[in-house]
Fold each of these.
Amino acid sequence: MEQLCIVTTGGTIDKIYFDDKSDFQVGEPQIGRILEELGVAFRYSVIPIIRKDSLHITDEDRELIRATIAAQDARHVLVTHGTDSMVQTAQVLSTLTDRTIVLTGALNPARFRGSDAEFNIGTAVGAVQSLPPGVYIAMNGRVWHPAKVRKNVAANRFEAAD
Amino acid sequence: MEQLCIVTTGGTIDKIYFDDKSDFQVGEPQIGRILEELGVAFRYSVIPIIRKDSLHITDEDRELIRATIAAQDARHVLVTHGTDSMVQTAQVLSTLTDRTIVLTGALNPARFRGSDAEFNIGTAVGAVQSLPPGVYIAMNGRVWHPAKVRKNVAANRFEAAD
Amino acid sequence: MEQLCIVTTGGTIDKIYFDDKSDFQVGEPQIGRILEELGVAFRYSVIPIIRKDSLHITDEDRELIRATIAAQDARHVLVTHGTDSMVQTAQVLSTLTDRTIVLTGALNPARFRGSDAEFNIGTAVGAVQSLPPGVYIAMNGRVWHPAKVRKNVAANRFEAAD
Amino acid sequence: MEQLCIVTTGGTIDKIYFDDKSDFQVGEPQIGRILEELGVAFRYSVIPIIRKDSLHITDEDRELIRATIAAQDARHVLVTHGTDSMVQTAQVLSTLTDRTIVLTGALNPARFRGSDAEFNIGTAVGAVQSLPPGVYIAMNGRVWHPAKVRKNVAANRFEAAD
């Protein structure tokens, strides 16, 4: 893996508490800081393309994400994304057949104790350098084909779709 | 991946502070607790075969690890191991060619703030379900062939060997 | 200090992320869990009287908090409260002159990495057993008289009032 | 409290893992970093006088600690110290009757998840600005007179002495 291209789109993984707003919103992408503190042994670049809760990601946004990735040289791409519409974005990206793209996110913000963010980023990093070209989702420690996974909202986890 | 077989051998990843001993030793394996708290979507079993700092792992220990894995049905195996002699153990396991085996560990104990343990376990989990049969090392966010990696002790990180 | 009476009212200290609501709200009081995990050497009881962001605490709520404390035997009381109107509640409690009451809270939720919650609870615990009867606020590592402190909202910290 | 003088002597609170030594030793004092990250509202200075496990603190060391404090102008002093001989050092400091001195430490290193360090530092900070001149120990959430407390080594906690 020559260089990992990371595209960030917002989502729970990047939610932080803004005390002056008495509210909890998507903040700066966390993945760059996390990988830097870990001292990872690969080169990477971060493109913070949008910063949205994925319930609010539109088809225009998905096309923007697709076009952004298509314009990059990197053959390995990691996308951080909200969990609510991650499957839909993965399906839109499926037209990009010449690189390995793994989407991940978190069910608890990276800034929260007990967050799944670092583990999920790790799963995606392990998968993206190991898989053949295609689009995949890494959540709950599994690597999924987008057509075969869904988020079970009530259970707050990803599971195999019929 | 039907079921992940996890073999634990000790190492820094499992070191904890024993206040009554005023010392810091390998304790109970952490990986089971970590995966349970994360709510991973795969079945796994944990075989805590030895509990040693890897500077003290002997050839007999390595043969025990190999024989333990060989006796399991699982085609996917994750081994947690100290970082100092991880490469040597990986080389001994290379005779097992019919399953995917990924070794990982941590440079800072799982119980420590800022530990690389969860990220490394994630990398190994993403890799083990994505790679063809063989033996691999997952450290510092990369997936390595054991013949092509070494631990740079002074720099406290894994890097490509010549 | 025979027994510490703890009254919880909500506030940022108890805010958690509800993924199914895609929102961040006051959850269960954290202080009981925190003190239990720390193994503190004093007896305490927790009265979770209300669960509100303190911007929404009313005069009726303040009277309820006052009456609740007045009805207890304990001479030492710790109140966890949102930071936005903590000073106002402290002023209402000033009519209770026969016990030591310390209010505290947090600028970052207890569940967040880097939260000030445990430190603030510690400051309040150290103060409540050391001070003469009266009402005090413990924030940012200082113990304040309610008439002489305010929250600087822009700076997100407590400071001496003129 | 005009300014808090902090004297650090080592102990479990400052123990960190040195991977290159495959060992766990007293490292740099943690309290300055902790107070800075918390944004406390008081001025303080840190005097890192010794860096020892308190089982190895000698009478000469205790005299050095006493003389160091005696030479300072500050009327409020916080000492971080190993828990094993904290009571002995507190007794030596009891000859300093003109200032408020609180000793604290931790049963788990500050760098460890679930450490009692921040809570204990908070307890000591709340106590040191609230108590009359004298020497005190703040552990397990209580403020103790040195003559009336001991460390129960087997139970790994502080308790009232007969």
Note: Residues 4-160 of chain D form a domain with the Rossmann fold fold (CATH 3.40.50.1170).
Amino acid sequence: MTKLRMGVIGAGLWGTNHAHTFNVLPETELVAVCDIDEGRAQKMKESSGAAFALTDYEALVSRDDIDAVSVATPDFTHTPIILAALKANKHVLSEKPLATTVREAEKIVEAAAASRGKLMIDFHNRVNPILAQVRTMVQSGEIGVPRHGMARLSNTTFVPFEMLSWAAKSSALWFLGSHLVDVLRFILNDEVVRVYAVTRDGVLKAGGVDTRDFHLCILEFAGGAVVTMENSWILSPDNPSLVDFKLELVGDKGQIQADPTHNGGLRRMVEGGLRYSDYIGMTPTGETRIGGFVLESIGRFVDAVVRDAPLLADAMDGLANTKVLAAIEASAASGKAVDIA
Amino acid sequence: MTKLRMGVIGAGLWGTNHAHTFNVLPETELVAVCDIDEGRAQKMKESSGAAFALTDYEALVSRDDIDAVSVATPDFTHTPIILAALKANKHVLSEKPLATTVREAEKIVEAAAASRGKLMIDFHNRVNPILAQVRTMVQSGEIGVPRHGMARLSNTTFVPFEMLSWAAKSSALWFLGSHLVDVLRFILNDEVVRVYAVTRDGVLKAGGVDTRDFHLCILEFAGGAVVTMENSWILSPDNPSLVDFKLELVGDKGQIQADPTHNGGLRRMVEGGLRYSDYIGMTPTGETRIGGFVLESIGRFVDAVVRDAPLLADAMDGLANTKVLAAIEASAASGKAVDIA
Amino acid sequence: MTKLRMGVIGAGLWGTNHAHTFNVLPETELVAVCDIDEGRAQKMKESSGAAFALTDYEALVSRDDIDAVSVATPDFTHTPIILAALKANKHVLSEKPLATTVREAEKIVEAAAASRGKLMIDFHNRVNPILAQVRTMVQSGEIGVPRHGMARLSNTTFVPFEMLSWAAKSSALWFLGSHLVDVLRFILNDEVVRVYAVTRDGVLKAGGVDTRDFHLCILEFAGGAVVTMENSWILSPDNPSLVDFKLELVGDKGQIQADPTHNGGLRRMVEGGLRYSDYIGMTPTGETRIGGFVLESIGRFVDAVVRDAPLLADAMDGLANTKVLAAIEASAASGKAVDIA
Amino acid sequence: MTKLRMGVIGAGLWGTNHAHTFNVLPETELVAVCDIDEGRAQKMKESSGAAFALTDYEALVSRDDIDAVSVATPDFTHTPIILAALKANKHVLSEKPLATTVREAEKIVEAAAASRGKLMIDFHNRVNPILAQVRTMVQSGEIGVPRHGMARLSNTTFVPFEMLSWAAKSSALWFLGSHLVDVLRFILNDEVVRVYAVTRDGVLKAGGVDTRDFHLCILEFAGGAVVTMENSWILSPDNPSLVDFKLELVGDKGQIQADPTHNGGLRRMVEGGLRYSDYIGMTPTGETRIGGFVLESIGRFVDAVVRDAPLLADAMDGLANTKVLAAIEASAASGKAVDIA
């Protein structure tokens, strides 16, 4: 079997997950890593065993010994990289969100249609085992017609203040809401047609991170379902987990509650209080397999390229997602509900 | 000590709680009960040991041997009874909501100001031990400035379909939202200034109860806090409790989560699945004391009349409450956010 | 009504609860307080408004203006005080455990039989609203015949290391196991006939408190039920509550789980991590009523004396309790199961 | 790469998991299936695509085109099959428990030592992502020295009454306790040296399944830790999951609580009450990968054979496990604690 030759762009936390996965999967070979910071690129080359380290993504996507690239750079930098890679007819796995403006996302959709490369967005919650089951239940009619719901995907202040260097260039809406809007579209198999949102700032700005504290909104879907959504970056650092992810749907025949992060399946009480550990995102496996939905999602991209399996999320999903997030921002700015064409 | 002579109007579930309380408290004496259905009135007279049973509230409030009355009739019938009682200078303990239109609530505010009787609204969640603590925490600054929150007070379909005979004349918004809006005003010690709401119908109508299935809304408070609120009557009957009450507030110094009904403090697994039993609403006591916050609230009315203690919730609270609920209905009807003067 | 004239012996945390209750209940009058530490006695006299402060319990129980006394001193000091009070024909409300040896408990049983005073043990969990419901469910046959169960009543190290000055003279078994054994006897309405126990020490001793870390045991009841019981004083201080109380019973028709302390009905995330607040032990009331099961239990003693209501727990309950705890210690020492006559 | 040629013995629920895994893993090829019931064997051959279906395990293990076998037959039938396979120098993956008597387990240990085949016991909870983390935490010293704990692995009556055809030939102790004892040995990296147990029967016998209802026991480990353990088959069928798995360890520096099955990460409320769905045992993956710890464990056997990775659990683990279970039965029969050599 000829292996898929991979390049990973972005040598941060997530790029490392991509590199690890391409090293483990039997169908792929990690060839090159790329980061604008040469030191980071070099360091990742060494830790991952990639053959090359580059600082210029253009140089990477033009190489003949690369079949496909992962884009794991900050949200707002995705577009030119993806466009360049698609133009070079490389397959692309992009971290979420696809892009941070509708215009950019539309360009990418066009470029994807014109390219011989496939484009997948790494909406890994589509293979989160809890949420994948919720989708199956909903799509099989187990809860009947979904009528209303509530969804939270929020972080403690640790994320904007300590984890993300580029928090001020993003927000809980783009960083977390992009996941949550996709999860809702995926589970309901439906599109958002109208949003109303309220936002506030102050806490993060006071802490030196110039972005919104949170967005609260109400999403109306074409099929009639109505869902409240919270994306906040100011949850207390005393939360038992740095992410609180909850989703609940009420249908006319039943109800489902998903709590991937605060369920207490694993509770740790050591110096520093009660903490809930993650046990589904990344899980231990033998050295020739990947474990956990975060890596499984990357594996699905390989399936799509190598075996022509369906893309987990394609460019149109990325565009629809961006449209909803942009509409939420527009609603929060205007104080009026916004319809999505 | 001369005992406060009480009349209870409305011989349903809640009127029975009032009657029991007035029988137990040392400061009160249950004199009369009243219901438009003579059979029910008579039956309650017998079970409660009241001296009289009447079918006409006008007759009750005009009696000289009555000092105070409880109004425990359906929501939409409160206004004329309260007005009559206040006009007769009786003290009045009214079940919530005070009234179902702003105009009615305003009339009651005027009548209360003109009467020698005191008027209290039985917003018993103000003495719910969980929520009372939340208020204390918030008002003491423990979580800093409240920034955002989420609140749910919803019922399974059991309530509109089987428990309430007059569900079609009310809705989850009026029946449950009245509690929740009051709890939020009480805890935040703040007023709602703007609301946006979405409502849907279909499930209850299909089941023969002609009212709304739910209201989802976003409440903005004068002090800046923003809260999503759900009031639904279509939760699955398979829920472990027929009521799901949750409240969470995120401040700039901390966070509080209250879950008075679904916390699993008492889980019962017998024929029919897993159920969570209530243990704070009504609790066992010796025969000369009342137990649980539902009865404590009634006791607070007696304190206010007998010892001039502060009213737990007064006519202005009832008016503010009604204004918010009416604004939610207006927003849901118009599709636009509504400001509250 | 002539008021019951009360003396409270022991001016610690719990004595304060007794004093407060006797000040609030309409049937009682707090006359005197007593503590071997004169400063504490005097301070409590001032805060409680009692007429007298004494340092000698003999002097207290011989006064003619005292009808009844509360014994709220450390566990191991109860016996002589109770005996003196009963000999003086005073009514006695004793904190738990009644006594710390079977011989002492037997003497008290004899003295109670010979006295004109009534003796109640303050096993307040009998009126814990969660556990009271569990008893009702079990005794009504709701779970059928109880077959097996598990019970935990344990504390974090905060209690032996920081809260209790006399921890070295007690243990989790006597301090907490006394409650739990009583709760099990009460709920099952049955007697323990055989115990096996294992104990260890080391953590508390290393921290300067010379007592056992925990006892784990298996209790067999006359009616056939078998229950594992844990009483530990070395839970992590990072627990969300300083007490972890859980009780579960499996019957042949159903199952009940009670979680009075770790249920998360009220979760507080402020400086210092996630904490679960108590909301059923003591709850807010108007100033003329008591609230919460901790005070209700004291009220039941007054009911028993003033209205001849049944004692919540009598001397025989105290004796049976002490027998079980002593047998657990004997089993842990011998490594063999111990039968209780 | 030459593929490992597999035979699966036992065409029940678990054998199907083995067959599926060997079909998916790139290193293995499912060659034959075997069941004493010819119809079942034939059916599994068809569904799995195996080349052969046999009814005689001796015939299977003597084939030259088979490198390794899975033993997924009922507990009490393992020994002769394993012995035959080892004698034929095949690699063996045995379902748990290894054997149901110490003597049998000892024979297997000898046979494994003499064979060129490797023997692994499928204690899949060693790769349960929650429990694997608990082991890592404990072995890294995160909770300090483990002092006491509690462990439950129990089923509702659904398992003995409806799921297992051979329940009367096993018990909750052998079926579930085998897992739990292994998990405790694995996490603590320590051996049980003394047990005391109580058992009862009645409920299952009344329902026509002639075995014990439950075993409750106290396990003492060589390193000093003491753990209560419950294995019951009579939990209420109204439980939200048919298995209740909980494990808690208290160390002198911290505490861990694991709740793999009742954590409510995914709650389903549809016809029939509230149910918690599994989301870690088996999880969705692309068609060339396995997902969930139940299958990962089978993958570890392949790793051990193909890459000489360490066995997840070997014959000595199986023997130690059987010794503890046998000692528990001996203690329950004698009423005395039993030391394990």
Note: Residues 4-124+287-313 of chain D form a domain with the Rossmann fold fold (CATH 3.40.50.720).
Amino acid sequence: MTITVVAGNPKPASRTLDAGRRLAEALTGLPADHVIDVVDLGPGLLGWGDEDVRRAVETVSGSSLVVFASPTFKATYTGLLKLFLDQFAGGTGLAGVVSVPLMLGAGPGHALAPELLLKPVLSELGGTCALPGLYLIDSTYTEDSALADYASRWSPTVAALIAGR
Amino acid sequence: MTITVVAGNPKPASRTLDAGRRLAEALTGLPADHVIDVVDLGPGLLGWGDEDVRRAVETVSGSSLVVFASPTFKATYTGLLKLFLDQFAGGTGLAGVVSVPLMLGAGPGHALAPELLLKPVLSELGGTCALPGLYLIDSTYTEDSALADYASRWSPTVAALIAGR
Amino acid sequence: MTITVVAGNPKPASRTLDAGRRLAEALTGLPADHVIDVVDLGPGLLGWGDEDVRRAVETVSGSSLVVFASPTFKATYTGLLKLFLDQFAGGTGLAGVVSVPLMLGAGPGHALAPELLLKPVLSELGGTCALPGLYLIDSTYTEDSALADYASRWSPTVAALIAGR
Amino acid sequence: MTITVVAGNPKPASRTLDAGRRLAEALTGLPADHVIDVVDLGPGLLGWGDEDVRRAVETVSGSSLVVFASPTFKATYTGLLKLFLDQFAGGTGLAGVVSVPLMLGAGPGHALAPELLLKPVLSELGGTCALPGLYLIDSTYTEDSALADYASRWSPTVAALIAGR
């Protein structure tokens, strides 16, 4: 089982990334094998054929479970995260990957965004998006119970999907 | 394993219902145990507490897999189907149910509707919505390969989820 | 100028309807000419050709501005409201009507629903949906400033559209 | 009246940009004053404070009408376009700007994307998004009537909004 976290925050080493790590571990009981901080990929994201980008895409495509984490910009995921997702093959780029949409925001008003906006992109790439989108408040997620509640509700589904892979 | 089809077409015994049956069988290898043609529930849907509606909700909540099938009205699912879904408990009404969103339309222009619009409602009810929304063309679905392609792509996921239940 | 409020709450004379009236008046400076409490239309909504339903549709289609108000059920508008909207002609049923999407909910988590889910239905019916979806908290909307802020921001746009009709 | 076209295609001088120009002219009767091919802004888009990016944002914010044009990547707008939109102030960055969502795709299956996905981002930035999202087939848009039909349907609304500004 390979577990990966993708964080699409323009700020490196963000809370977004931290929350993604925590969620991946809470869902599987294991620390992430790979963490891709998309901003580190730099200008290679703006075109096609960059070697580092290609490797990052391969890591994600070959994972069992990937948490895709984004801050909320303009009521949806960041352009930076989408730039990375645009590098995957449509329909098959996430085939067989349990793909978990996670967004963080300052307040509760955008809580529907991971379900209505981020999950459909992962689904379009062929991911197995069996879990609902999770939205966390960025100032309280390390203390409130939202992440743990979600993980305890959905980790059996993750286990069933990975066992049945 | 209990398999149910819910059809939200104001016309009884519609192609919507037929497509739902075919999809349920193609995904599981078994005919549906229950078929709920929502229009048969009649005016009891307009309020709360109708006995037939309650029984239909219970049947759905207790199923292993449910195909929710709707024609496309105004670029989304019907009011009739939503009236029935409004009778379920938020967050838990579809807990543990593999919930499959299916829509039929006259042309391809509304193909994103099951993924972007119907699936989130099933997800809000707590359903396990691991499969992407399926959209079929109502005049050709018995002849084209869309339903069979989808079933062969996603039946292993259904099997893993039901085995892991 | 004809102003109409449509309320899609299964409970008659609801806060949904009250909020719709207030919004229509705040946007135009005039009380609503017509108020359609969809639940009053009853079982005629479940089929086609009911005379009262037809008249209600005509009233809406012939209005200059209509507020479409719904409580939040399962993270979106009610089946009852959609049942009524299903009675309009696709693409033209709201042609020339400034169509304002309004939803009320118990908490802030579903605040994106009027913009992402209700507005597209009105747009599919051909409405002029120039205003963003408005979401109000049902327990505080008579005291907080959300409705007034929205009305002062958007009433000039309403005036321009109605003058240019 | 200042008219601007923004094109978010990673390929410079794309059909996306051409379609945006045609639409802006068809809606207003005038050629675009400014054309922003987002890809030309380069790596400055990946952070904050780039001078060329700032100028492009100002041009857009100060326009009367802006067509935001994107090819369809993964069933929605491009990461490149979103990267540019992320540079605007939330709620006010497009205040007073008639903002028109346009997407091009290879086939009809993603036709709901401009309405359901691109328009809400423009709306979140405070734009006046009175026109429905337009979706064009990239191989036929210069010959089919979709663009002209849309322009003749909606140019009076554009005129009313700009006169009432």
Note: The longest strand of chain B covers residues 98-105.
